[in-house]
Amino acid sequence: MKFKGKSWLFGDDISTDLIFPGRYVHLLSNIPELVKHTLEDARGDYAAGVKPGDFVVAGKNFGMGSSREQAATIIKQSGACAVLAKSFARIFFRNSINNGLPVVEVDTSGIEEQDELELDLKAGILKNLTRSFERRFAPLPPIMTEILNDGGLVSHIKKHGDFHL
Amino acid sequence: MPQTLSEKIISEKVGHPVKAGELVLTPVDWVYAHDLSGPLAISQLEKLGLGPLKYPERVIFYLDHSSPSSTAIAATEQKVIREFAHKLNLKFYDVGSGIAHQVIMEETLRPGDLVIGGDSHTCQGGAVAAFATGMGSTDVAMAMLLGRTWLKVPETMRFVLKGKFPPGVYAKDAMLFIIGQIGVDGATYRAMEFLGPAIVAMPLYERTIFANMAIEAGAKVGLLPSDKKTREYFKEFNREKDYRPLKPDEGANYSYTLEVDCSKLEPQIALPHNVDNVKPITAPELKDVKVHQVYMGTCTNGRIEDFRVAAKILKGKRINPGTRLVATPASRDVYLKGAKEGIWQTFVEAGGLVNSPGCGACPGIHTGILGDGENCLSTMNRNFKGRMGNPKAFIYLASPAVCAASALTGKITDPRNIR
Question: Is B43 part of the contact surface with chain A (CB cutoff 8 Å)?
């Protein structure tokens, strides 16, 4: 899988409360409405400004806190093709894969706002086309690659009838 | 080979010895969801044709986040869960029962259980030596369907607690101190084990805080050994038969060890907006911090012992007129005990208010949302921006004793200075 798009920058320790604020809990099952508030408390211009194929780019520990899966769902539905971060919180990472949202642990330093990025998931290469540098990253564990390639966990289970370790 | 608690529990489940780093497909003893994680779990199951669930007797639903329901939408989502649970004859706890993690610990969990919950604080179960970990709704749904899940056996960080706690200092202070030391991602992907003489001497309600807040350092699980104190706890809930001793082996492999001398600790405060922004209460920046609301409760510190500590400080006094005091018991059992002991009377006579069991204020749903620019001092576990429903508010975390003392003065107050 190859992706190309612009970067939206976020800092360290972006919590799922910043991604999906608790005050919108009434929109829990109304994803089309909830998506309009994606990452709202981290930066208010993201949800309206993001273009299909853009990247969410962050520092360390992205997605910390609550297990609310809609945090991953709305980032995917917002149009972002992947989240790139120095590190991720465990539950968010798993939720993203389960929703078919690529999450990539990679050194994001040096990436600036609206840089043009190209991600090659299979090769494990992130290119910054604006600033002409590239970073390599380790592949996901095979089970996660498979779930991601199947389009998420529900499709994975539909296909295999079980977890396919 | 000597094993950590995680390795030991997972080995038992899968039927062969495992070690940190291995990926396993493991049976689960319990899998649960609540009114926020439940609706998506159910709709994912419906996408797969609704089962049949492999082990319906292991599946539990709790309604605790809007308890009682806060909006028509919440009430309708709860109705869906209620009907689903009844249709499949699943264990179900309606509004008023209490917070999932507390209720499952009182009634259900056994040492050595492997538990998946649709909530990050599922790790609370580690207090009774259950390998309990939070996941999202889809993982929970698949575990409900298949009776198993996949996971990586975590590496373990060891925290050895020594020394006697000084008066006015509690397990909450020790855990805030630890998170302050290792950071909000200090234990990501790993297990935390809490051991040592101070843990051995500690009753279950205090041990629970270490397991509960392990997620605040990013951990997969927070585990404590099962021993005499665990047995006493099970006895209190008339299920001594569920007790068995369980501890890590001597010589087990730990990736990190931190020793904490509890006798040297002061009360600790986590300042906005991260749980690792921890300072001792005597720090200069904590002088004269006005408190608009004190919130006591949640899965972290909503147990009867917590309210006893607070009631002792509040008894016969009035809270500061500029401060609201909100108490929310973590379970029906806590609610009943508090009623019988006159604890709620003490809170109300002091000028506070008491909610029914639940946890709606912490994620910001209802029963204690903050106003713009307000400071809240809470016994809860998270002080992220936007927590408690308002990104323009500020949350400080502390022990029940600090909370009660501060309710009296209207500013963050060291409980060691009250009478």
Answer: yes
